[in-house]
Amino acid sequence: MKSSSNLRITHWLTGLVALVTxxxxxxxxxxxxxxxxxxxxxxxxxxxxxxPAIQSTAAPQGDATKAIPAATEVPAAVVxxxxxxxxxxxxxPGTLGFSNNLCLGNIQSxxxxxxxxxxxxxxxxxxxxxxxxxxxxxxEQITPDRWRFNxxxxxxFHNGVPWDADQGKFWLDFGGDEETAGNAGANNFGFHxxxxxxxxxxxxxxxxxxxxxxxxxxxxxxxxVMEVGWWKGADEDxxxxxxxxxxxxxxxxxxxxxxxxxxxxxxxxxxxxxDAQAPSIPHVIQLWRTETLVRAAMLQAGEADWAxxxxxxxxxxxxxxxxxxxxxxxxxxxxxxxxxxxxxEVREALNLATDCQTL
Length: 359
Hints:
This protein has a single domain (9-323), classed as D-Maltodextrin-Binding Protein, domain 2, CATH 3.40.190. It starts with 8 loop residues before the first helix and ends in a 6-residue tail after the last helix. It is globular. The strands form 5 sheets. A 6-stranded mixed beta sheet has the order 2-12-13-14-3-15, with helices on one face. The protein is built from 9 helices and 16 strands. A hairpin with a 2-residue loop joins strand 7 and strand 8 (146-151). It is an alpha/beta fold.
């Protein structure tokens, strides 16, 4: 099961607009609505990568909030003096669409995860609360195994097709499908088993679980949406090379082996959450270099604005920040067959000897 990981790079890139710096990531099936014709397909070009020139120089936890209030006034848009932001990951993305198993929970997949695509909910990077993004208004728990989501009117996908409950239902069913265990690319099946959507009206959607699901809103960060009509009409190659979402950026061009270029989605409808603000930088370009030293040198030379690097290279860059990850590592001990670990006194001693607070 993939991790949500990596902080919400999308909204860090849009919200921290003037940040020409560095971040280190440490610790780390229902009928769909009839769609309008999809917009032009961005170009995907296969090229041979050039050698870069370098100058010398969170686990879901706790009880879910029963309900959240409807969205209030949206914060004033952030104004950036920067036209293009270049960020560097350690690998090229394996896909731009999320319906296969190559859209992973890490920085190289941030475009498919959160920049073009957008999940139902997010854990805000300021408050750490579960918040709605552009296309969700509010939610409440109706019964132990049922939640009601109120959708935002006036939200459109990048090809102009309106967002509604039928679109949402398709992706809830897709990610909660029992036969495919969530179609291999959705984590919600791992948390709740079978889940599905029920359309109440065009802007109201019920989510039902096969068992009690008190933390469902917290885990819907893994359930993203694309425009269903486009997706159904595309073959597997197109679904991987493109993405018609409703996130803050839309695809311009994926130059294989070189870069992915995005432009701000002008019709993105911001919400009140810090991580749901409208994009303030018109263009974003993703580059990738395997070596952490090369990524640090690109920052040092002004060839990139943001990159993940090693702590060993922190002195090479103008500024660095250490971030956290939301992955949980579990060490399983055999308390049944191991002759010593079967003893409760031994397990108590191990527990007392572990400095959990420091960890």
